[in-house]
Amino acid sequence: MEGAVRVQILSQMGISEVPSQYIQPPKNRPGSVTENIADLSCKHVPAVDLSSEKESVLPAIREACRDWGAFHVINHGVPTKLLDDLRRACFSFFNDFPMEDKLKYACNPNFAASEGYGSRLLVSSENETVLDWRDYFDHHTLPLSRRNPSAWPHFPPEYRELMANYSDEMKALVQRLLALMSESLGLKASCIEDAVREFYQNITASYYPPCPRPDLTLGLQSHSDIGAITLLIQDNVGGLQVLKDGEWLLVDPLPNAILVLVADQTEIITNGQYKTCVHRAVTNASKARLSIATFHDPAKTVRISPVSDLLLFCTVCNKEEE
């Protein structure tokens, strides 16, 4: 079992200052970030309506992936009830049950990317002593040979079934999105998925307890995802930020939407046409926040390289820009 103190315990102690290991170096602190979303209304992450005609969807996806590396999808086909029920079940696991019961599912600290309940997952490469103000539960969901629902919480009682159903829905949506992303580049619909091959899918529910010093901490440090594509749902609290043109922008939660984040391997596959999204999570002093991220990584034996059809195209484009 992981020996780290859960952040939720620290928050519930009513401390007025955060322990030193959670304090970010001055250059990484979010204190100076603009948090008034009204001031950033012209810079909102784009939203793409998947029920629209393909003639309008493809250019919208192309622009979003090139300029942002992120976009919301609406009318995506995933049942709203499933989104709501899963958020409710995950929040209940973190908030409604004794710590001694939750610790029965604690991560094994001796293995990287260990499945289970933990607090220390992503650590800054610059300063390995700085911790995120976050607890999480990581689920190994695909391929099916990795899926072991008995390793997931049995409380609330519907938790395991909801997580399995959500995993299947996310796979179907990712296949649809990768096809649209491929077509938006003039490639055959299966191109990016063919490069990724079998999905290795993990679903991570992150719980961000209230923090007494949000100006000094981060719920999740700045990073880009290492896989192919990430799908994220938030609650209505908000706290996710994306880096756009050197500025950290708050991603305002959009009801019933799913946020798409382009990850590192897709940037490689598209030869830099589509940019990986650098993002982080900030904390707040009054409300707990929940998000659920579904990561889709390439098969472990696959060597990722740019699609050949894009190599010459990108070379010509770069010369024209010069």
UniProtKB/TrEMBL annotation:
<dbReference type="InterPro" id="IPR027443">
    <property type="entry name" value="IPNS-like_sf"/>
</dbReference>
<dbReference type="GO" id="GO:0016491">
    <property type="term" value="F:oxidoreductase activity"/>
</dbReference>
<feature type="domain" description="Fe2OG dioxygenase">
    <location>
        <begin position="198"/>
        <end position="298"/>
    </location>
</feature>
<keyword id="KW-0408">Iron</keyword>
<dbReference type="InterPro" id="IPR044861">
    <property type="entry name" value="IPNS-like_FE2OG_OXY"/>
</dbReference>
<dbReference type="GO" id="GO:0046872">
    <property type="term" value="F:metal ion binding"/>
</dbReference>
<keyword id="KW-0560">Oxidoreductase</keyword>
<keyword id="KW-0479">Metal-binding</keyword>
<dbReference type="Pfam" id="PF03171">
    <property type="entry name" value="2OG-FeII_Oxy"/>
</dbReference>
<protein>
    <recommendedName>
        <fullName>Fe2OG dioxygenase domain-containing protein</fullName>
    </recommendedName>
</protein>
<dbReference type="Pfam" id="PF14226">
    <property type="entry name" value="DIOX_N"/>
</dbReference>
<dbReference type="InterPro" id="IPR005123">
    <property type="entry name" value="Oxoglu/Fe-dep_dioxygenase_dom"/>
</dbReference>
<dbReference type="InterPro" id="IPR026992">
    <property type="entry name" value="DIOX_N"/>
</dbReference>
<dbReference type="InterPro" id="IPR050295">
    <property type="entry name" value="Plant_2OG-oxidoreductases"/>
</dbReference>
<comment type="similarity">
    <text>Belongs to the iron/ascorbate-dependent oxidoreductase family.</text>
</comment>
